[in-house]
Description:
This protein is mainly α. The protein contains six helices and three strands, in the order αααβααββα. A three-stranded antiparallel β-sheet has the order 1-3-2. Strand 2 (about 130-135) and strand 3 form a beta hairpin. Helix 2 (about 55-75) packs antiparallel against helix 3 and helix 4 (about 105-110) packs across helix 5 (about 115-125). The radius of gyration is 22 Å and the shape is globular. Mean pLDDT is about 80; it is low at about 45-50.
Amino acid sequence: xxxxxxxxxxxxxxxxxxxxxxxxxxxxxxxxxxxxxxxxxxxxxxxxxxxxxxxxxxxxxxxxxxxxxxxxxxxxxxxxxxxxxxxxxxxxxxxxxxxxxxxxxxxxxxxxxxxxxxxxxxxxxxxxxxxxxxxxxxxxxxxxxxxxxxxxxxxxxxxxx
Length: 161
């Protein structure tokens, strides 16, 4: 069996339009990166210390999380110091102290890594009994994550010491 394939002509206009769109998107991305950097510099220069709570472990968790984000900004590379599991645990600890529920998608964002990486770490943390998933009673498509009693106890122990 000898199959022959007819080559479809490549329309130069389609290729050029696609290339132009890619170039424009890259330019926009660069402009946004610069804008974010400028906004961060302004924010850092006007940074006001967050109000202290009566909960020392909460304050410590918030400070650790903020320092991790600040380090990424200063070094300019979020992948250099990646600890997504730790970021998820800190985020969930803070949320629990504020009586807030965290959706899986929010936990992924808080981990500062790609969603697939964050989901893998959420699964690992759940398998190790450190976090739990719960389905939203109002919208069954949404799933929340929270520290398990064991995860909460270990975070507390770490943050107190």
